[in-house]
Specification:
Distance between the termini: 45 Å
Strand content: 35-45%
CATH class of the largest domain: Alpha Beta
CATH architecture of the largest domain: Roll
CATH topology of the largest domain: Chitinase A, domain 3
Number of helices: 2
Structural class: mainly beta
Order of helices and strands: EEEHEEEEEEH
Shape: elongated
Helix content: under 10%
Radius of gyration: 19 Å
Largest sheet: 5 strands, antiparallel
Length: 176
């Protein structure tokens, strides 16, 4: 009888990943109690340092992955700050330090931003990812591996579409 081939993490495979993300010694995020994170390996939808470290792993394998900031969300950019006139916000909008919102620049690009401060005239925004400049540690376990469908390979997304974000234009509006 022929033995079944063990699938390993490689480009073009859908990977189911259980993980615990630790930043500065504190658990920041985890798949515990939820379905594993699923992604198409090689599509660039997860941070490069983690994706590279998972290559070649088999179902059931675990490892601790140290990802330096440069291979995660990059260095903190002190120039990625902006301010908006407070009048651009509806009067009932709850302006609070730490709140996140999506903003669009003059070219139509959508960015996630955090309110870093405000005064009576302006709202100050930080456009850096919250983990920019941080080294990350993942305890990663491969929960499953399967070949991606043609649609998944074409879009780089599990399921082959962006229907989960509600975007009708194949994610070009800033999904994810």
């Amino acid at each position: 009888m022929e033995q079944a081939q063990t699938l390993t993490v490689a480009d073009g495979m859908v990977v189911s990943l259980d993980y615990v993300l630790t930043v500065d010694g504190q658990v920041f995020d985890s798949s515990e109690g939820m379905a594993p994170l699923e992604y198409v390996h090689g599509a660039g939808t997860i941070i490069p340092g983690l994706e590279n470290a998972l290559t070649g792993m088999a179902v059931g394998e675990s490892k601790i992955v140290q990802v330096p900031a440069e291979e995660a969300y990059g260095p903190y950019d002190p120039n990625a700050l902006a301010s908006l006139d407070r009048g651009q916000f509806p009067p009932e909008y709850p302006i609070q330090v730490g709140s996140t919102l999506r903003v669009r620049n003059e070219h139509g690009q959508v960015f996630n931003a955090r309110i870093s401060g405000f005064d009576e005239r302006e709202v100050y925004l930080d456009l850096n990812h919250p983990l920019a400049g941080k080294d990350l540690q993942f305890h990663a376990r491969i929960a499953g591996v399967r070949p991606a469908t043609e649609a998944e390979q074409a879009t780089g997304r599990v399921g082959g579409s962006c229907s989960g974000c509600g975007s009708a234009d194949n994610c070009s509006g800033g999904c994810g």
